[in-house]
Amino acid sequence: MFLPTVAASPKLLLRRCLGVLQRVLCLFLQVYRWTRGGSEARVEGSPEERLRQGATTPTSVNYHFTRKCNYKCGFCFHTAKTSFVLPLEEAKRGLKLLKDSGMEKINFSGGEPFLHEKGDFLGKMVQYCKRDLQLPSVSIVSNGSMIKESWFHKYGDYLDILAVSCDSFDEATNQLIGRAQGRKSHIENLYKIRGWCQQYKVAFKLNSVVNTFNVDEDMTAHVTELNPVRWKVFQCLLIDGENAGEAALREAERFVISEERFQGFLDRHRNVSCLVPESNEKMRNSYLILDEYMRFLDCRRGRKDPSKSILDVGVKQAICFSGFDEKMFLMRGGKYVWSKADMKLEW
């Protein structure tokens, strides 16, 4: 009887040693996560924990339904890595899922959203969101180069806000940045679109990316004349795989500016009442971004890590992988008077 007991003892000892080793490894991994990204993990929790606690409400969503663009902005952080665009009915199904989950505002972007089907695909989605889903706010971000007055005539009633990107009021600077197409004047076109917005009762918004080529420019006079409802001023942001890194289609490192230079630009324009500044810190995690497959993109690690598509797993599960920082969204003024019916604008 003694021999089996002796034979069993090494096995028992081995199991105990393995158990201790497993606990040590778990402790090591926990410490490693804390030191490498622990504050993020402790504050936001894992996707599974966020799902148990209740998913974030997708109040405001940015749908980049196409990556194709006719401009070549050197700092672009959503580049033409694919030409895929969802069929319209599938896109509508996803938009309905978002509305049913609490979406109040949808922003269509790209790429250049007016490029696909000459803007008609975009117009049909805008019409669907406002007329059928009755969303409080429907907006678009565009470079403005493909917009025709006929689009406003057909779809303008369904659009709350049109944001046009303009990084400089000097044509040569726009050429350097890549925000241009041939010899067309980006600035003249911008003013033309501003007039159409006034005529067709669409709130006009201006977006600018501050970078090495425009950081010393004073845009006060032009912005004041254009009188947008908001002037979003972004600090040039690097995203691995998009505008930085080996797999990127852009090399944006030469466009990057320091926090100090960005603040200098803001100080120069401090008297522009519609200015809404967004530093890299504010911008990186405070947007709910859907890509062309309707996957939420997590930008916390300096790249775009996609969730599964909301068309496959639903909004509640997919949004837990978005890395969305709702507090920062509110701090940067992400929720504002965004329905043109409530803006009390003088048309």
TrEMBL record:
Assigned keywords, A-Z: 4Fe-4S, Antiviral defense, Endoplasmic reticulum, Immunity, Innate immunity, Iron, Iron-sulfur, Membrane, Metal-binding, S-adenosyl-L-methionine, Signal
Stretches assigned to the Radical SAM core domain: 55-275
Gene3D superfamilies (alphabetical): Aldolase class I
Subcellular location: Endoplasmic reticulum membrane
Family of this protein: Belongs to the radical SAM superfamily. RSAD2 family.
Main location: endoplasmic reticulum
Name of this protein: S-adenosylmethionine-dependent nucleotide dehydratase RSAD2
Transmembrane regions listed in the UniProt entry: none
Membrane topology field: Peripheral membrane protein
Annotated GO biological process: defense response to virus; innate immune response; positive regulation of immune response
Protein's UniProt keywords contain Iron: yes
Lineage of the species this protein comes from: Eukaryota, Metazoa, Chordata, Craniata, Vertebrata
GO MF annotation, one: catalytic activity
Cleavable signal peptide: 1-19
Swiss-Prot/TrEMBL cofactor(s): [4Fe-4S] cluster
CC annotations in GO: endoplasmic reticulum membrane; lipid droplet; mitochondrion
Record PANTHER family: RADICAL S-ADENOSYL METHIONINE DOMAIN-CONTAINING PROTEIN 2, S-ADENOSYLMETHIONINE-DEPENDENT NUCLEOTIDE DEHYDRATASE RSAD2
